[in-house]
Design a protein that fits this description.
mainly alpha, SP0561-like, 5 helices
Length: 82
């Protein structure tokens, strides 16, 4: 529980829109520009049922992806679209 709060504080401090605790489906539906980034990182689960329950942090862990780098790339895709 403490780990989650720390990560959320880091995200708020850096003024990120994406938090590690958000589900993959939530991210992809809220910001469609993030879907290609997730797929490039080997996370084709954007449209599968698991994406509705799996958080970005869990998905990154399962796929051996650096969470901090992934969030940075997702944020970049969001900003590009704005």
């Amino acid at each position: 529980m403490k780990k989650r709060k720390i990560k959320e504080k880091i995200c708020k401090k850096e003024k990120r829109e994406i938090e590690p605790s958000m589900t993959i489906a939530e991210i992809a539906s809220r910001w469609p520009a993030t879907a290609p980034v997730l797929m490039q990182h080997g996370m084709p689960c954007v449209g599968c049922p698991i994406a509705m329950q799996e958080t970005l942090e869990q998905g990154a862990s399962v796929h051996n992806i650096n969470l901090k780098e992934l969030i940075a790339e997702l944020e970049k895709a969001i900003k590009k679209k704005k």
